[in-house]
Amino acid sequence: MNDLNRIVEQQRALVFARSNLYFLTAMLLVVGIGDILISGSWFYFALTALALVSFLAYLGLLGRLPLVPATLGLFCILELLVAAAVYNAGGVMTGAATLFSALILGIGLVLTERRSILIITFISILVYLILSLLQFSNVLVPPQPGPLLNEQSTGYKLFSTVLQTALIGLVGAVTGSVASSMQQRAQALEQARSQANEHAKAAEQLATQLNEKVEALRITEETLRRTVDILSVPALPLVEGALAMPLIGYIDEERAGRLTSFLLKAIYERRARLALVDLTAIEATDVLPAMLARMARGARLLGAELVVAGLQPAVARLLISEVGDRLAIQTFQTLEQAIDYALSQRALA
After folding, report:
1. How buried is residue 67: exposed, middle or buried, by Cβ count under 10 Å (0-12/13-18/19+)?
2. Which of 38, 98, 283, 291 is 20 to 30 Å from 70 by CA-CA measure?
3. Pairing of strands 242-249, 236-239
4. What is residue 42's three-state secondary structure?
């Protein structure tokens, strides 16, 4: 039996025991004391007190002993008390099957194994038949025999015994069938829960693996981006005092900052008076106007002129929308035209 079923049965046992404690306490106060005051008999008071003590002991043993043996032990004690109550009430002809059946139903709420319910049903039938045999043979005569026990024929007594025995067996069979169905459903739920846990663990492992792969891809992407940045921004010397920087690929805010820093550093280190930036192979993005503006201002501060080649229509529209005509940059459609301009500026120098 799995842990979930064990916990559920333990909770059912606690509910069963506590509810019977409340019921027996009420019986002790009402029936037991009432019987003492009315008839002077202490029988029902003692019977109820014994049942109450049995349930208290059962509650104390729950968790210390296995559930099935503890519950079967309680059942045997209650079975004897029921037999004593039937005997004192007038014998087996006074609806004894009802009490035995009620006990089977109560215990069946705790023990959901069909085998256990069959055992308690067999014990109930055996106790009922033994009690019937003892009473019909006048070995055990109730203190106040019921009228049915004394007046009816042997055939009727036999028929009543068979009928009540069948009733006890039917109650036990139905209880066992319901308990078996409940146990199968509980096992199915537990299996579904286990499968769900396995799927959740598998999904968690898959998510972890995916996160690791995503992180590895991110690191690889970052490494490739840095490599591309290094390879795609060579500051190529054109002539003395002039350098060219061809750009390729996609430019975001982070890369734009690195390109600007790289260009200004190259201008400073090579004492360049003209810096040519080729935009032929880049994609138009919103960061280009701000990047070109920073490059132009930085170049002027370093005493150099910024020249842009390969300016695409989309980039030109971005420049107009962002900075208008305030950006004084010399632009050319092709790299060849920009190189010719750089050479002419060198000749003039």
Report:
1. buried
2. 98
3. antiparallel
4. coil
* Positions in the chain whose pLDDT score sits under 50: 1, 148-149
State residue 4's pLDDT score: 57
Would you state the structure tokens that stand for residue 190, as one six-digit string? Answer: 């537990």
pLDDT of residue 173: 87
Helix (H, G, I), strand (E, B) or coil at 249: strand
Spans of all domains in the chain: 3-198, 233-348
Residue-wise pLDDT for 112-140, tens only, equals 778 888 888 999 899 888 888 887 777 77
Nearest Cα residue to 100 out of 172, 153, 155, 29: 172
Encode 186-218: b = buried (16+ Cβ within 10 Å), e = exposed. beeebeeeeeeeeeeeeeeeeeeeeeeeeeeee
pLDDT at position 107 is: 82
Res 304: pLDDT? 93
pLDDT of residue 21: 65
Residue 259, burial from CB neighbour count under 10 angstroms (0-12, 13-18, 19+): buried
Residues 102 and 59 sit within 8 Å (Cβ to Cβ): no
The Cα 269–Cα 264 span in angstroms is 9
CB 248 within 8 A of CB 232: yes
